[in-house]
Each structure stands twice: as structure tokens, then as C-alpha cells.
Amino acid sequence: MTRLLKNHVLWALCCGAALMLLLLLLQSRAANGPSQPGPTSAPVTPVAVPSTPQEECGGQDGELVVATGDDISTGSVRREVFDEWNDLLKPAGDPPAKLLEVSNSTDVRRAQMAALAQSGSCAYDVLVLDVAWVAEFARHGYIQPIDLDDRAGRFMTGPLEAGQIDGKQYGIPFAADAPLEYRRLDQRSGGYLLQLNDKEMGTINFLEMIEFGGGTVLDGDDEVALDDDTWAALTAAGRALSSTDDSAAVLRESLQADEDGSIVAFKEGRIGGQPVSYMRNWPIAFHQLAADPRMRGQDMRLLFDVHAPATGGGVLGGSVLALSKHIKPDKVAPALRLIDRLTSQEAQGRLYACGGYGPVLTEVYETYQAGGGPSCPRQDGSDITNPSLDELATLAAEIRKSIEHARPRPKSPYYAQFSEVFRRCARGVWEKKVTREAFFSSAGMLEAAMNGRTRTDRPPC
Fold it and tell me: Where is the signal peptide (predicted)?
């Protein structure tokens, strides 16, 4: 059985890799066609392949495999939550949960999960999906709906709706993300560091750059709507500060920065020889900063503060827990019991206090803002300083404010194509390599990408 499962997984990976290679070839062809506007092809349709026979989906030692990204929290608390489930809380008849960290890259992780799903693989039972992927995985049949009755309003509205597609709940909120501004209190004359690298994080930051600058990319119906304000926001040199009426220059080094690199530069107060005083990042950055002795004064007070965006808005991030379409039927009930535990108030409070994951439950925010909630004890022999209850209360208030104003990315099964095209154009504008005319002429290409059509002409960006 073990040899058969290994052979199946190898076959699935090979098939998945071939499918992803075909997709890349199609995208490359679209990027290198003639320069004049051309027609669009038919919508992309997933390749139909048979699913793995259910009798071959037992999993290694009957485990419940949960596919996710790397645990980037300060103390690997997410894995501790899973260990606690397996050792103390799991019903005796349920299979143990195996946390499988697929990749630390959002883009690579999505591609690998999608490739295996297209091949009909049952290698994963539960998927921890970025909220931006839910539409793709739901409408292509990679995941299945989950019955959820939230009439009591346990979940935050934004994260809950992010997991809903066509009126059904395909993803149960697991971690909530929204933009926060970090400001050094000991150095306020430096620049503003964003994450504008050529990955999904770059797309998010460019969308926010335009929104915070008063421009638009998409209207309320997710139709492309570029205008003069879009161009002005994308070419502005500064960014308004959340705590004052001033602005700070956005550092050119942002073009190569990701979340982790930004945190390192913020701690050091410099990047590429330029001083850094402000940073846009996710809530989890708070714990990584607070745990560093360099970010606290002699009185142990933080040398930085954090605010939700002053103008409101921003891009909603985070993750959901989803059931694979190919999960073995007798694993569904155990998977749902695990999901219930991961979204319980106790687990969500621990993930927040010790790891910095944004809670998805309203009650967790209310508890911390009222001065309660669990704090994370300092580990024996560790020099990590965990946030105090006062610091957790302040952070909870800012995260909640940001989540309540953040907007989801388009619920399109072809969002990944749109993201790549938009990011290429936005980076070109910011690098002063794309003209105003070329940028506005990209609207048709963006519309085509959003609807799953690849252009046969050379992209204007």
C-alpha cells in the first residue's frame, strides 16, 4: 500500500508539473506576440483527468494531511496547536493530523496545490488556502463546500465572506490579514518601505498604493476601471502617514522587498544605504519585531508603534481551511472536527498571542480590547520577549479596524492571471518604463486576464 501511494503521488506530481508547464507556455506565448491589439482566446478550462481511486487514498499511516505554507510565527505556535490536537484533544478514532508545509512562497504553493488538484491527487486532505485562491479552487472543482451555520456571528464578516463562492462556504476562516503601518519612534526622518517585488505581495501593495492615493483599478463589479487618479496614485513619490497629516517618500528599494526582507530592514533602520522609518506589513510582523531586543528600549517599551491605514481600505489577506474534493469520505468528519478546533476561541487566542496570526473570531478581538485574553509565556532559556497584554490589546484594535475596512481581491477563478498582468504593468509604471498611454491601453488585457482569456498580442506593458 505504501509503495502504491508513493507511486501515485509521484505520478500526480509529474502530471501536475506537465500541466503547469503548459500553462506557463501559454502565458509566455501571450507575452511575446505581435504588438498590435489582437483577439482573445476562449476561457481557460481545467484539464479533465480521472480522480485517484478512493481505495488508494488512505494516506501514509492513515494520516489527515493538512497542506499549508511555512509557519512564520516567532515560536512555531501553529505546529504546537496541531501537536496538542494529536496528543490530547483528538477523538480516539480520528486519524492524526499531519501538517505538511508545502512552500514558503505564496505563488509556488498555489501552483503546486492546483497542479495536484488538477491531476486528481488525494495527497492533501485539508488545504490552507490564501483567500485570493478560493474562487479558483472552488469553481475548478478542487475543493468542496462546507456546511457552516454562523448566525451567531462568531466570524469576522470580511474573512467569512472571503471563503464564500456562489452562495456556498468553501473556506472556513483560519487567519485574518489586513495592512498595518509600522513606525519607528526613534527615527522618523527615513523613508517608507513597501513590498513591491514581482510576486503576489507586489500586486497587493500596488493595489493599495492606488487605492490609498485616491485611484481605482476595479469598480464594484470587479470590472477594470483605470482613470487619471489611478495614474497619479501610481506615480506619486510619497505615501500618507497614518498618524499624521504628513507623508514619507516610498523607497525605491521596495521593488525588491518582500515581507521578511522588509522586517529585517525595519529592524536595522536602513536598506541599501537609505534610512527606513515606516513599513507596510501584515499583523504577524508585530510579533517578529516585538521579540527582537533591538526593538525595545531599556525600559522594555517598544521602539515602534503600529496603526491601521489612516484612510481605511487596503487589501484583505489571510487564509481559510478547505476540504479537498478528493478527500476520502471517512476522513471528512475528522477533518471537520479538526477545523472546529483550529477556529475555536482558545486556539485562535493562542495563535494570536504567541504567533501573531490575526484572529478570525469577533470574540477574540473583544476579549483583548477589554484587557483580557491569554498572553504567551516566555519560554525557559529563550531571549524572546513576547508581547504584553497591553501591547496585544493595542494590536488587536488596529488589526480589527484594518480588517473591517479592507477589501477582498476579485473573486475570479483566473485571479492569478490578472495579478501577473496587473503587477507587470504597475511595476513598469513605477520604474518609469511604461508610458501613460501604454498603461491605459492595458485595460483590455486586464479584462481578458480576469475572464480567463490569454491575449495573442504583445502586452502593452
Answer: 1-30
